[in-house]
What we know:
EC number: 1.17.99.6
Helix content: 25-40%
Main location: cytoplasm
Number of domains: 2
Order of helices and strands: HEHHEHEHEHEEEHEEHHEHHHHHH
Radius of gyration: 22 Å
Subcellular location: Cytoplasm
CATH class of the largest domain: Alpha Beta
Active site: 139
Function: Catalyzes the conversion of epoxyqueuosine (oQ) to queuosine (Q), which is a hypermodified base found in the wobble positions of tRNA(Asp), tRNA(Asn), tRNA(His) and tRNA(Tyr).
Amino acid sequence: MSAVDFYNLLPELHEWAAALGFQQLGVAGVELGEDETHLLNWLRQGRHGEMDYMASHGSKRSRPQELVPGTLRVISVRMDYLPSQARPGFDVLADPQRAYVARYALGRDYHKLMRTRLQKLANRIGERVGPFGYRAFVDSAPVLERALARDAGLGWIGKHSCLINRDAGSWFFLGELYTDLPLPLDTPASAHCGTCRRCLDICPTQAIVAPYEVDARRCIAYLTIELRGPIPLELRRAMGNRVFGCDDCQLVCPWNKFATPSPEADFRPRHGLDDAALIGLFEWDEAEFLQRTEGSPIRRTGHVGWLRNIAVALGNAPYSAATVNALERRQQHPAEIVREHVAWALAEQADKRAAASRPG
């Protein structure tokens, strides 16, 4: 490997990555001092909520060489995921009888697909340079993936904390190869949010408490996916019909006018989840939930969490007898958390019916 010209290896890396379906590749170093400070401040303020794993790995998250000894460089890649066939996000949000599912979760889970392709990239590198040290990650270990992608030139971290690429928006996944190869570094991406604050203003629960600062405890993605307990009462109405994740900050971002729909068949909507009726999803029993979410990110929330989330959305929907009937059929669910959210939703429906019957 000592005879390898790593500078001339870079064009080959880009070529191999493109052939594997990645839209971009870059190389970052391992120094993340400012990002470590930002992470520690975020944790100190408790903004990670119940995501204890964010604090359970010490400094390994911000120091790649501690997570994988010998790491000199991080090869960062991105893959577009916006499905071209999906009903437009704002259209679904404007229809309170439908369920909004985050665009990334409409198709198959991305973890296995991207990890498999990263392994193929590593294999190709090994054929070229000989044995080398590496580990592949796709949201599967304590990795500051957005900071590394920024340093690799893939984009800048926006005010909503997502990575933004000036030519491709933000609808993409990230993956990494930690490696001991002394590859030339790419130039970190510069920020281009300027004075724009659309993401802050549109956030339904005001989870973006300041530019570049997100309080996960208020974020609908956290509430519908990571949180295992009851959804705070004061945030339920603001959730609207969002039952798994939230994309408002990305939907409104002006840079996403440059986003390109993904060519990946695995990211196409399955089971009509881009335009599904809330009542229909609420009727899934656990067996149907497991069958329809096989290979899907939605599995993470579990059937109980799924029903909890949809109960809130049904409570937020306009009054209808069909909605009340669907909720009443879940009043005796074995899980207390489902019963509690169903009771709340029924009370919301009763209030709406009463308001509609008042004269004037």
